[in-house]
Amino acid sequence: MPSVPRQSPPRDEPQRQPEEDRRHTIRRRWITAIIIVLLIGVPAGYLAISAGQSRDSGRDKQEKYAATGLTEGWPSRVQRRIYEVPIPAESGKVAYYETNNWRSSRLYTQFQTTEAGLDKFLKDIGVSVSDLEPGEITISKRDQGIVGWEFTGPGPWSGLTHKQSKPRPTQDVTVDAADPAKPMVYVVSTATP
Fold it and tell me: Is there a smaller number of Cβ atoms within 10 Å at the N or the C end of the chain?
C-alpha cells in the first residue's frame, strides 16, 4: 500500500489584535501617566513637605536657643527645679533665658510679684527679706549684659547672693522696689557640675 504523505494540520495563523483607535490610545496613556504621578509624585511631594517642616522646626529651635535676651513666659518646671527658682504663682511679667557650657549653666529669670510673693520666694530658696542688702545689685555687669538688664531706675534696689554647696545652684537676687506692693525680682541662678 502506497504511503500517503501525512499532511500536517493547518496551522492557526496568529490572530492579530485589532488596532486601537486613537481615542483609546490617548485614554490609556493618560491613565498610565496618572498612575505614575500617583505612585511617584505623591510620596515625593509628601517627603518634600515633611523635610520643609522639619527644617523650619529646626530653625525655630535654633533661633530660640541662639537668641540673646529674655524669652517672655515661664521657664519649664524642670528648669525651675534644677536652678531652684520657685517663681510665686501670682507673678507677672515673667521672662527667662538659659545658657549652658562645659563649666556652668545659668538661668536668668525676672518676674514681678507681691510683697507676700517676694517673702515666699526668698523663704523657698532658703533666705528671708532681712537678708536683702539695701543698695546692692548682686547681678554682675556681664550677666546684666547677656540678657539686656539695666539696673538704672530709681529703685530702691536691694540684693543678696545665696551660695549653696555643689551641685546645688548659687542664686544672685536683685530686687527693684520702686513699687513696694509689686517688687520686680531678677535672679541669676548658676549651676556648676
Answer: N
